[in-house]
Write a structure and sequence with these properties.
17% strand, 33% helix, two-stranded antiparallel ribbon, Peroxisomal Thiolase, Chain A, domain 1, Beta-ketoacyl_synthase, transferase, acyltransferase, 13 helices
Length: 429
């Protein structure tokens, strides 16, 4: 085990703990609503009504319906709103930075998208009907005619807003490592605390980018499920009849602290971030290298960083997107690293219920992993009606299961071969 009874792990590094968590997904706002829906097998996937979908092959998504959005400006604005909701809940639970003075840096995963081009052109021409529609014109038009939108054109606007609101220290870091981004934000927080650069860090993943342009782009990559009816049955991780992932929105935030800092202030410790591993293969824009070496090495690196073995892992929170390729490669990685233990350890995908929250997914799943440890209940993989004999794993099919869980491996495998795995554990003795 990595953690010792002291404040440093077996490698001499500060033990990193979580003292606050916040989450919002299509299942609801906050930890309680999300956990109740998740463990009851409820789906947050539904027909999209935010914009017309009549001519699209995919017409469903895990949109957050209880937040008002501007349909064509949703990506930065909604991402900021969702992030703020998650951070507020995490800060309240941890009681660090509640007065706008968070004692560490901000690492935030944000989607690399802005508003759609027809609306950009409309905005520019409203200020200069006969002029060119280039980036400079857009900035000038937004600055003069829509100052509320001006920040949306500037890189890092979501991070800057949150940094100002919560008083994080240093320059906020915005990052994008595809579908591994949320886990990368956590990894950067872990590393900052281990290096002694901070006593605390705020790690956030957020994504509110379901709009027509994004939906079409993913559809052109043949990545999305087209089984639109019924919407809640579309996401089928690990099932033989899976046909793609379902786009979704959400955000999660975690307050990270060194164990020493948390104990000194009497904080309630929600779990330990024992290890993080990352690996990239740069093989293809969407597919992993067929030999699976990057996924295998990523999982192994996380276990090595934590100082644990596969037998020490009680549950795997799968990346589990529901695409034919990804689920097969994740199975290969787990089987290779875990060996004979692969069939004994349960592995499930919450994307079967909330869809794929993209940039936010790694952070969302870290929160669910810690709640799995705290509640002793494994979220199911729903829509698992046609087992795939090529994936002989215990996927916790369709119904949640009670279990004693001390340690979780949480996988995040992104497009472009960008992979991060985290090892999360219960509070040390």
């Amino acid at each position: 085990m990595s953690a010792t009874n002291g404040t440093h792990d077996s490698k001499g590094r500060p033990v990193v703990v979580v003292t606050g968590m916040g989450i919002v997904t299509s299942l609801g706002r906050g930890r309680e609503d999300n956990w109740k829906a998740l463990t009851s097998g409820t789906s947050g996937i539904h027909t999209i009504t935010r914009f017309p979908t009549d001519s699209l092959r995919t017409t469903i998504g895990g949109t957050v319906e209880f937040v008002d959005v501007e349909p064509f400006f949703c990506a930065p604005g909604l991402s900021e709103t969702l992030a703020n909701m998650a951070v507020a809940e995490a800060i309240e639970q941890s009681d660090v930075g509640a007065r706008g003075d968070f004692p560490g840096p901000l690492f935030i995963a944000v989607p690399p998208v802005e508003m759609e081009w027809p609306q950009r052109e409309e905005l520019a021409r409203s200020m200069n009907p006969d002029g060119p529609v280039d980036y400079g014109t857009l900035l000038a038009a937004a600055r003069q005619g829509r100052p509320d939108l001006h920040r949306r054109f500037l890189f890092g606007s979501v991070a800057e807003t949150l940094a100002d609101r919560y008083g994080t220290k240093g320059s906020p870091i915005s990052l994008s490592t595809a579908c591994a981004s949320g886990a990368t934000a956590i990894q950067l927080g872990i590393e900052a605390i281990r290096r002694g650069e901070a006593d605390a860090a705020l790690s956030v993943g957020t994504d509110g980018s379901i709009h027509a342009e994004a939906l079409i782009r993913f559809s052109l990559l043949s990545a999305l499920s087209t089984q639109n009816d019924p919407p809640e049955g579309a996401a089928k991780p690990f099932a033989k009849n899976r046909d793609g992932f379902v786009m979704a929105e959400g955000a999660a935030a975690l307050v990270l602290e060194s164990l020493e800092h948390a104990r000194a202030r009497g904080a309630r410790i929600l779990g330990v971030l024992e290890g993080a591993g990352e690996q990239a293969d740069s093989f293809h824009r969407t597919r992993s290298n067929p030999d699976g070496h990057a996924i295998i090495d990523c999982i192994q690196a996380a276990l090595d960083d934590a100082g644990v073995t596969p037998e020490d892992v009680d549950y795997i929170n799968a990346h589990g997107t529901g695409t034919p390729e990804n689920d097969k490669m994740e199975c290969l990685g787990v089987q290779t690293v875990f060996g004979d233990h692969a069939q004994a350890v349960p592995i499930s995908s919450n994307k079967s219920m909330i869809g794929h929250t993209l940039t936010a997914a790694g952070a969302v799943e870290a929160v669910f992993s810690l709640m799995t440890i705290a509640e002793g209940r494994l979220p199911p993989t729903i829509n698992y009606d046609v087992p795939d004999p090529a994936i002989p794993l215990d996927v916790v099919p369709n119904t949640a299961r009670d279990a004693e869980v001390r340690r979780v491996l949480s996988n995040s495998f992104g497009f472009g071969g960008q992979n991060v795995s985290l090892v999360l554990a219960a509070e040390p003795a």
